[in-house]
Amino acid sequence: MIMKMRTLMIAVITSLVFVSIGSFSIAKTDTVKNITITKNEAKEESKPATDITAAKTESSDDKNQVDDDDINRFTNTIVLIKDFYVQPTGDKTLLDSAIRGMVSGLDPHSEYLDKDAYKALLTTTSGEFGGIGIEITPEYGILKIVSPIDDTPASKAGIKASDYIVAINDKLVSEMTLQEAIEKLRGKAGSKVNLTILRKGEKAPLSFKLTREIIHIVSVKSKMLDSQFGYIRISQFQEPTAKLMQNAIKVLKKKNNGKLQGLILDLRNNPGGLLESAVNIVNQFLDSKALKSQYDDLIVYTEGRLPDAQYKAKADGTDTLDGAPIVVLINGGSASASEIVAGALQDYNRALIVGMPSFGKGSVQTVIPLDKTHALKLTTALYHTPSGRVIQNVGIIPDVRVENLKVENNTSEADMAMIAPIKEYQLKNHLKGNSDKKPENADLFNQNELALAEQDFQLFQALKVLRTMQMLHAQMEKNKAIHPTTAATQ
User: Fold this and answer.
1) Tens digits of per-residue pLDDT, 141-186?
2) Is 336 one of the annotated active-site residues of the chain?
3) 65: Cα within 13 Å, side-chain hemisphere
4) Is 387 an active-site residue?
5) Which of the listed CATH numbers 3.40.50.720, 3.30.750.24, 2.30.42.10, 3.40.50.80 matches domain 115-216?
6) CATH of range 220-401; options 3.30.300.30, 3.90.226.10, 4.10.320.10, 3.10.350.10
7) What is the DSSP secondary-structure string of 155-181?
8) Which of 334, 347, 363, 377 is catalytic?
9) pTM summary value
10) What is the dihedral of CA 408, 410, 411, 412, to 10 degrees?
């Protein structure tokens, strides 16, 4: 039986509502288009691609022009979905899906925020929410973990940066939208969620059963590594982070007679945060008077298409460490604001960067409300380090590359020599000096070194680098004191 041909009719009204936010403005236009097609007509009107391209010029303006064929293709798609899709689909659903697809096709970080997504974003920025504590980004149709947040269910369970979430509660992530995946990861404190994860080097998927918690982010932690060197861990850049770090340095100085001989700034698995916070952190380590207008005193700058996307931050502070050496620890989970801090301190030779290459997320996202319940999160600019390096897709390359190796408890004596070199007094039948006593606290020193190497090999190596830097710095200061005129002319 031959089905009768029927004519498909649709009147499509496209309205772009006036929006004015800062420099963003879109004029209101109304376009009404009546389209009548039949199946035979659609077949006859289809033209080979060569005919279409031949009619076009090579200019980029012509390539980006929307013609009748483009409009027909869009409206015909709506007609065919509404008439032939297995389930009835409303106009609102199609409109939301069209906007979502249009925005998600730009880059992994641009996003259409519907009512639920916009509400979730506002909840997240308030600093407290129920979840497992991870920063994620879509990649290859699944979710890549940028970094687990310190002291959260994810970090405690052993989830790592660069892991891939392929399933949530046994449902494939590839079958979800980004917002659906986020909603499944979040939930009430005390509720359970199961993650199936792929990890480089593992032959089979890993399964994690996590209990959601209210995520309270403590952005700054600090301690003394020994009697000379301080350690500050920044897990995320929030509004109070710069002030918290300033207070932490004061406390560390007080523990060491008012001065630190060096500092390790740990930015590993720090997914970023507020740009202003990162700028204030850098400003505390640079002496603006000593920069001599190098790189125009810039800490970071952005470039985008709109005037509001042009941003420059300049150093105008004093060095809170008085020139004491700094080591910045980074890894593949260090992203965005973390890379801004590391890149600026590296450009000015103020710190040595140790660890593994960073994530490479150097773009600026701006949330632009569409109405009271919907918004667009759009990439509007790219970050540059003071010297002009682009962070996006490249990241920050460490000066000293150190992988996160594991030191076992049953380390052999030969391997131990790499961690804590053998001293003369430890050798059998060693020659005695004025006294055969061991150096004070020698055993304690070795025990602490071994414990740090077992616990965190990258931090252990960073401390060794910092000690070397401190010795060189002390020698330079000594030379300046002996030969002040020569030092001034260098």
Assistant:
1) 899 998 898 889 999 999 999 999 999 999 999 998 887 898 899 8
2) yes
3) 13
4) no
5) 2.30.42.10
6) 3.90.226.10
7) HHHT--TT-EEEEETTEEGGGS-HHHH
8) 347
9) 0.70
10) -160
